[in-house]
Amino acid sequence: MRIILFTYLFFSLISVQAQVFSDKVVGERNQELIDSLKAKKYPYVLLIWGQKVTNLGYDLPYSAGFSVNYIGLESEIIINNLQVGFNGGQMFELDDIVRFTETTSRSSSINIWPDIWLFPFLNVYGIFAKSSLSTAVALDVYAPTAGNDELLFDFNPQADFEGTTTGIGFTPTMGVGGGTMGF
What pLDDT shows up at residue 172? Predict the structure, then answer.
């Protein structure tokens, strides 16, 4: 579970750092760029108020974007200290009877993320994802004896899951010190 969380956070931070934002060009040394931005015709239908904001000296991003991400991971899971209790009663350790030999969790997901800048201060996006997950558990059940434990049976269940994710979201932004900050 920690690996999945770490992987999710890692790729989330990379995505946040990779976003394009508008930039208010400031300063006397940039006056030529500011003048050229103010005279420039905004070429896209979307961003509502795109031309007005360009006339104010903002260098705007593309009005639409598209991102595709693939995430795949495999994790070995260690299961030990197995205890069983009934009706809130005493817990009984079963490590001598049930022995987990191999437990593996696998997941893969492909994410599609189209987005548009609706206003200079509002990016709207959609999320579409298809995920496949599986968990395989291998365990042996023994009859404890005085010398050699006798293998009663082995059990290798596997659970497979598939999921689809859809959603929409938005990122409001605001100008801070000549740049743009998203929330």
Answer: 86
